[in-house]
Amino acid sequence: MPALILASASPRRRELLTQIGVPFSVLSVDIDESVLPGEEARAYVQRLAHAKALAALARSEDPKACVLGADTTVVLDGRILGKPADRKQGLEMLGALSGREHRVLTAIALADRARCEVRLSESRVCFRPVSTVEAERYWDSGEPADKAGGYAIQGLGAVFVRELQGSYSGVVGLPLCETAQLLEEFGMQCWSDTR
Ligand SMILES: Cc1cn([C@H]2C[C@H](O)[C@@H](COP(=O)(O)OP(=O)(O)OP(=O)(O)O)O2)c(=O)[nH]c1=O
């Protein structure tokens, strides 16, 4: 079986990949996450997942390495909401998401020396109205700062989520159904080593 490397600094992604019982190591990479002029959200997350996987593959010395990269973004009215830069932006994001439906896109890319395959998971999340006071209290919890769209469905932010259509693990940062399928395509089986 090829050695799987997760190209991510995200503890959420580590936990999710651990959940499906595949052995892996971690090699985080720092890439430029700027949106290109006129770039559409789906193209953006797929490009970044691809870039993360290839950057880690280039750093790995294992010729048989298989690298998994992922990127998550929140999309509201076609607008890409990444991680909030500061409190002001975090509160603006929550205000914009309040009482409305948005999309969460997570792209995954799996690459070895011969090929790179990308998959996209798209979910719809509906927020109940969030008051300014609640948004401020939520920001002060520290949770939103490093999350796309400024919230975490797996944390305190769950109280805002009225409805989810799609992949819960995808919203958290790593869509496990698509990930497992892609791993199988590359000859890796989930939970094969856990019995
Ligand atoms: C919407 C949402 C996002 N997020 C997180 C997932 C991602 O970690 C983060 C989006 O940022 P990303 O740039 O996708 O990932 P990252 O910088 O955290 O990690 P790396 O690039 O090293 O893999 O937002 C949640 O944890 N919960 C949520 O509900």
UniProtKB/TrEMBL annotation:
So what does this thing catalyse? dTTP + H2O = dTMP + diphosphate + H(+); UTP + H2O = UMP + diphosphate + H(+)
What gene name is given for the protein in this entry? Answer: maf
Keywords on record: Cytoplasm, Hydrolase, Nucleotide metabolism
Name the active site residues.
Answer: 71
Record's function text: Nucleoside triphosphate pyrophosphatase that hydrolyzes dTTP and UTP. May have a dual role in cell division arrest and in preventing the incorporation of modified nucleotides into cellular nucleic acids.
Q: Where is this site: Important for substrate specificity?
A: 12, 72, 154
* Record organism: Serpens gallinarum
The protein in question is named dTTP/UTP pyrophosphatase
Q: Which cofactor does it need?
A: a divalent metal cation
Say where the protein is mainly found: cytoplasm
